[in-house]
Description:
alpha/beta, Ubiquitin-like (UB roll), 44% helix, binds flavin mononucleotide
Amino acid sequence: MPEYQQTYRVLRRQGDDVRALAAYRQAGGYAALEKAIRQQTPEQVVQQVTDAKLRGLGGAGRLTGEKWRAVRRTEDSQKYVICNAYDADSRSYAARSLLERNPHQVIEGIILAAYAVGASEAYLFARSSFRAGIDAVQEALREALDAHLVGRDILGTDFSCTINVLGVDIGFMGGEETVQMALIKGRRGMPEQRPPYPAQDGLWGKPTAINNVETLANVPVIIRDGVVAFTKVGTANTPGTKIVTVYDVVSDSQPVVVEIPFGTPLRTILALAGIKRADGDLRAVVVGGAEGGALPPSSLDTPFDFDPIEEAGAIIGSSIIELLPVPTCMVAWAMERSRYLSNESCGKCVPCRLGVKRITGILEGIVSDLGIKGDLAVLDEFAGYIPNGSLCGFGVQAPNPLKTAKRYWPDHFTMHIEELQCPTGTCVPVRAHRFVTKHVLP
Ligand SMILES: Cc1cc2nc3c(=O)[nH]c(=O)nc-3n(C[C@H](O)[C@H](O)[C@H](O)COP(=O)(O)O)c2cc1C
């Protein structure tokens, strides 16, 4: 059994301040850029990222090397790199922590990506509310420009690349790649049909490598330390680390941000975040953020990796892990999540726009003890057809809270429907609402 501990590859230890260029260089920063630009071809950089099996850390886990190869091979003189530092789920601290604590590593990753795919212009797309992170990146960019690490003729070579920083906030959908490209062009942020993928037909119709900020911050580690060192941490399918935001909802605590090797069991992640709770103290552990799934405490030994987490019904998604206390009615939890997602749906696809709203409505009925047996089959039908009829990943994942609540806590649904009882006594039926309302009215 490997020993799992916090592993700082992209985040830095508290007190290990590398925000200034001199400090970042002192810690080995920009050595990867020097090495790549002076000694390696762009193809070699792509090959190392491929060999390292670096997966997209924005949630879906696509292989970064394959994406870069597709952009590199497209014959076009103009190509783009987009660094997705948005964090659709605003409760995630991954992107903002990276921007604030390690802005130069983000810049180095972007420039390496641009060199690898052949781009001369890059965009860093952050949430406008990440003020401290955006300020840190802009300050780092000023230093990097002065040191010829970004901009024209980088490190005295004929390779040039500029980085534009954008701060935008349009809610959850602002994290989706085709939405970001529309917003960069000044258009309304709505997802687009794929294929064609951004690698072929991206920003202004040009080949575009769009990657999550954490994915890009890992590239300097691969180039500087080599593929063998990089793949020593993590699992065979998913080498490397992941920034995880942990919420101990039970005690309503502040979130804790950790960087852990892929494959670390959920239980160990909680311990590393300083949370110690008996399984009997928990109703569920929710993995993946707003679109994530709720798993029972018996799943706490599941390794944090794409396949096992998806098999259990959750997603890596925004890498948020949160705990639900025992008095949580899982029908009410699924209803609240669905309501939030219904509000965040951009509305372009009818199944997502109306389907998630209908799920919310049916769950509202069930928690109010107005549900009927047939509701369960209708919910299953919606959970099946919304993912199939949606253009982007939002609709694909939106039924996850409902699906996992039904899978692991079917008794919560039947108690509400058949016995008109909330399993935890926390849902207030509509009838009771009316009763209370009557009493407080003058
Ligand atoms: C609704 C929605 C929200 C998303 N939010 C983010 C996000 O906040 N950050 C991110 O990197 N990717 C997000 N993605 C995934 C991006 O569309 C894209 O796949 C990703 O940035 C690619 O980078 P990666 O391969 O390095 O993960 C989101 C996707 C969807 C459908």
